[in-house]
UniProtKB/TrEMBL annotation:
Signal peptide: none annotated. Residues 1-74 form the Cyclin C-terminal domain. InterPro entries: Cyclin-like_sf, Cyclin_C-dom. This is Cyclin C-terminal domain-containing protein. It comes from Lupinus luteus (European yellow lupine).
Length: 94
C-alpha cells in the first residue's frame, strides 16, 4: 500500500492526469479511495521536510543530477480532498 500510495502522491505532485486509472488499480490492487489516507500522510511529510533535521536530504535531492525532486511543490490539493488523515488505515496496511 505504501508503494502504491507513493505513486499516487507523486502523480498528484506532478499533476499527472488521470491521477489514478484502471490500469494502476489493476496492477496495484488498490483504488484511489483506498490510497487517499496513506498518500495524504506522504504529502504531509513532503510539506514538513524544509526546516527539519532532514536539510541534508533536501539539499541532496535538490541537485539537478538527482532530478531536483526536492524542489517540487507538494500536492497541497490532495490534502484538501476528503478531510483529515486516518492513521489507522495506514497502520493496518503496513
Amino acid at each position: 500500500m505504501v508503494a502504491a500510495s507513493a505513486v499516487f502522491a507523486a502523480r498528484c505532485t506532478l499533476n499527472k492526469t488521470p491521477i489514478w486509472n484502471e490500469t494502476l488499480k489493476l496492477h496495484t490492487g488498490y483504488s484511489k479511495e483506498q490510497l487517499m489516507d496513506c498518500a495524504k500522510l506522504l504529502v504531509s511529510f513532503h510539506l514538513s521536510i524544509r526546516g527539519e533535521k532532514l536539510e541534508v536530504l533536501y539539499r541532496k535531492y535538490s541537485d539537478p543530477e538527482r532530478g531536483a525532486v526536492a524542489v517540487l511543490s507538494p500536492a497541497k490539493n490532495l490534502m484538501s480532498e476528503g478531510g483529515g488523515i486516518d492513521l489507522s488505515v495506514v497502520e493496518n496496511n503496513i
